[in-house]
Amino acid sequence: MPWYTFEPSWEPFRDLDQLRREMDRLWEQAIGPERYRRRVGVFPLLNISEDKENFYVRAELAGVHPEDIEITLEDCKLRVRGERKIPTEEKVVGYHRREREAGSFRRVIRLPERLDAAKVEAAFKNGILTVTLAKPEEVKPKQITVKCV
Asked: Where in this chain does the record put each SHSP domain (predicted)?
């Protein structure tokens, strides 16, 4: 029988998570629950990719209505604005965990080159916004034919 067992009392991830939750609770008490939730806000996740013809920006916008999304393109900057609205509870409930947030969001994506603004398209399907940005002809890769002389 061992006379001594080591049980670590310090678990860094558990302790950090507990500290974060305590800080969230203190902030919420200090500035009020409604203002605190607005401060946290909505931050949609993005994927940006490209192929020979286009750039693609895909944003995860579950729970956002397409009519609440505004997209602008100016000086190689794509701006996506919108608002996620979550219906309020009809009665007072106590949350055990609340990760879905409501509110306005804004993402600005700087693109590496000028784009053909006339060929920008946006589609929304299953909570994913896809913006397709056509590259201008002068920056698209060109295949050069070798001539026999």
From this structure: 37-149
CA distance 46 to 79: 12
In this structure, what token pair is assigned to residue 140? Answer: 């698209």
Considering the entire predicted model, what is its pTM?
A: 0.66
Please answer whether residues 130 and 57 qualify as being in contact, where contact means their C-beta atoms are separated by less than 8 angstroms: yes
CA separation for the pair 85, 103 (Å, rounded): 6
Q: 139 versus 121: which is more confidently predicted?
A: 121
- Give one word for 63, left, alpha or beta, with left for phi > 0 and alpha for psi -120 to 50: left
Residue corresponding to tokens 């929304």: 124
User: CA-CA distance, 93 to 111, in Å (whole number)?
Assistant: 44
> Region 36-50: what's the mean pLDDT?
79
Average pLDDT, the chain: 85
